[in-house]
Predict the 3D structure of the following.
Amino acid sequence: MKIVKHSGNIVDYNPSKLRQSLLKSGASNRQVETILKTIEEEIYEGISTKQIYKMAFSLLKKICNSHAARYNLKEAIRLLGPAGFFFEKYIARLFAAEKYQTLTNFILQGKCVSHEIDVLIKKDNSIAMVECKFHMGKDANSDVKVPMYILSRFNDLKDRRHIIYTRNDKVLDCWIVTNNRFTADAIAFAKCSKLNLLSWNYPEKNNLKTKNDSNHLYPVTCLTTLSLSEKDKLLVLDVILVKEIINNSECLERIGLSPNRIQNVLKEASELCEYI
């Protein structure tokens, strides 16, 4: 059976790929097989991957909210837009979880011009700049022009002394992070130029997806028990990660949730982060 991807490309329906993503959500083998059987009874020639995703998400949600939330991770990261400001805060949280000191939206003077840096990180007295390339489009990729441009900014900054954590700091390294993917040329150029890349699926064993799953760094936008407007209110309150809700029901009270709904949100958050 042929299905239509977001890009418009027509491919064969691959139940194995769907099975794997459902298992990663935390659903059991029996639950996954039931979902696959239901979907296979309803799909048709030419159905879009978006419609299949919606069906799978809805079926997961009936089983367990936290399974659906984990399955919804990539879309949840996209909901940190559209401007990308909250995505930058989210990336800072990911580095902070790995024991980095972090600063966001910091202006540094280069040799030629000044630069607004999305995130600065420090560990073991080494400081790096992190540039975030946020895409709202699901099929948008960061091509080779992105690392080429950011390398020029890094080169303008790296040989100068800056006032960051002390009055005599140097920016010694550079990261580029995107919520989608890098093209093959972008990866090749970054490797050649010694730039660090982080995306949804790169590097293979330490990417956005694996960092989330291993450290439970899920953004609040993945929670199924909150509306879009409620998620936006939490982001404005600087509540970026699901972890930050647990043992902090005050933030849920501040956005107007009833005691019963607060309990539902906390239950989903605890299950998602495996604090049971």
